[in-house]
Amino acid sequence: MNVYAVLAIFKFEMSRMKRTIGQSVASPVISTVLYFVVFGSAIGSRITEVDGISYGAFIVPGLVMMSVLNQSIANASFGIYFPRFTGTIYEVLSAPISYIEILLGYVGAATFKALFLATLIIITAHFFVPMDIQHPYIMVLFLILTAITFSLFGFLIGIWADGFEQLQVIPLLIITPLAFLGGSFYSIKMLPPLWQKVSMLNPVVYLISGLRWSFYGKSDVSLEVSLWVIFTFLVVGILIIKYVFKKGYGFKQ
Amino acid sequence: MIKISNLNKVYAGGFQALKDINLNIKKGEIFALLGPNGAGKTTLISVICGINNATDGEILINGFNIIKDYRKTRSLIGLVPQELTTDAFETVWDTVNFTRGLFGLSPNHAYIEKILKSLSLWDKKNNKLMTLSGGMKRRVLIAKALSHEPRVLFLDEPTAGVDVELRKDMWSMVRKLQESGVTIILTTHYIEEAEEMADRIGVINNGEIILVENKDLLMQKLGSKNMSIDLRASLENIPMELNKFDLKLVLEGTRLIYTYNSKNEENKISEIFDVLNILKIPFADINTNQSSLEEIFVSLVK
């Protein structure tokens, strides 16, 4: 294992985060605060409780999950796309480093950043709503699995993308709508029966539901199903990455 | 040091960039790879360094296969790419240390300091790469390539676009590296550079190695020499007695040029002078010059 190489990539990505602290940290935290103000205060005054949880507290897991999904994908995709764009990827490809180690460096850094932001958002949420995390270990497990899985998908997007526009396409057109329609701001049980069934096709429902269970012990879907879904995503992500590495797509000609 | 056998590279679109390359590069030598644009120089380097995959064939570095033993082979190699590819927002210090880490070595600030000083980069160590000139960026790429103490150094057109002073500095640095036992493979468009630096020269054209030769031998083998005889009075035509020497009369009849192979001991120089004396054709000056590597190169790839 080329530990120094993994650390070099990790450190490089962290220094990028430091350089772009406004974009990396302040922006998602401010967005989350705005969600609390708009959804928590304005709408929350009309919807007092959902499943016995105050509306402000109810939306916290959804906001955290949205941030983890978006940040994991954004950081991992940009992390690998930028050296491809500038041509500095030649260094990584010519170094004595395996694909697994490349992955550990880039995906590890993106995962770390996403988890760091999730922590910031949970801390921020404490200032707005009273919250009690009932199953902190499950919460940590869920966040870690989600951050790793979506960083893997982000990495794939970064390998696939041929331009900066393509980096934005999947997060904007797929992840954000799925997160909004995945029960971030409402319980699936509040929907008419038909839409409840349709919502079950949305994979993000399971992620938000699982995280919400870890906070309040209540969810739209059972914890076991949510865990199975995130594990399945993780395995699928790993298998795709393995195939891409084997073929050298996006890296080597 | 490097053994390439039956190497082929066909790109996805079907273009064959390398055709059955067989090449041995000796330890400690400076090998110059010459070729016109699109000849396959950069592709060959990319395949050896692991940036591109070969279609078939085998490459051994120090006896290790570049696929099976990629960690060992890549650890031995440093690459200075043709393009000035740098991460604009990083500092000189960070980017050079980053490369050392990528190659699996623990931090060694004293060594990095030594490299930066030797490349006149020390006072720029905290500068962001985007603030550096093209020549300075080129130095940074060299520093990065040297950061992990490679035994083989690929310089892909290292002096493209740099001024004469920096070019000479680089030549001096390359010589020092060779003295320390580093094997150097240089691609260049500046034939003067190959002529100045190389021990051996390979010529690649249309993906094929068409010649590999010791530089001095190549110059001898293929290098023709010209002898110019400046006449005191102009001639209208070359006298019949001189026709057998295949001379050229130029500069309005004031200069005779005799072209001969420098390796051929049976040249006709003394006979020419004998005939000139018999014909009483006085001459003011004599000059000989060897054809340059550039001329040889052009004749090879024509």
Q: Beta fraction of the residues of chain A? A: under 5%
Largest chain-chain contact? A-B, 27 and 36 residues
Q: Low-confidence stretches of chain B at least 5 residues in length (pLDDT < 50)?
A: none
Question: What proportion strand of chain B?
Answer: 25-35%
Q: Could you report the average pLDDT of chain A, rounded to the nearest whole number?
A: 84
Q: What's the rounded overall pLDDT mean of chain B?
A: 85
What is the top-level CATH class of the largest domain in chain B? Alpha Beta
Structural shape of chain A: globular
Sheet with the most strands, sense and barrel status of chain B? 6 strands, mixed
Total count of strands of chain B: 14
Shape of chain B: elongated
What's the number of domains of chain A? Answer: 1
- The total of helices of chain A stands at 10
| Low-pLDDT runs of chain A | none
Give the beta-strand count of chain A: 2
Report on this model:
The complex is a heterodimer of chains A (253) and B (302). By secondary structure, chain A is an all-alpha fold. Chain A has helices at residues 3-19, 21-43, 55-86, 89-94, 99-128, 136-160, 164-180, 193-199, 203-216, 223-247, and strands at residues 49-50, 53-54. Chain A has one domain (3-247). In chain A, strands 1-2 form a two-stranded antiparallel ribbon. Chain A is globular. The two termini of chain A are 25 Å apart. The mean pLDDT of chain A is 84. In chain B, helix 3 (92-102) runs parallel beside helix 5 (134-146). Helices cover 33% and strands 28% of the residues of chain B. The model of chain B has no long low-confidence stretch (mean pLDDT 85). Chain B folds into two domains: 2-219, 3-Layer(aba) Sandwich (Rossmann fold); 225-291, Alpha-Beta Plaits (2-Layer Sandwich), CATH 3.30.70. In chain B, strands 6-7-8-3-9-10 form a six-stranded mixed sheet, with helices on both faces. Chain B has a four-stranded antiparallel sheet with strand order 2-1-4-5, covered by helices on one side. Chain A binds chain B through residues 2-5, 7-9, 11-12, 15-16, 19, 83, 86-88, 90-97, 248, 252-253, and chain B through 11-12, 46, 49-53, 70-75, 77, 79, 81, 83, 85-90, 94, 97-106, 144.
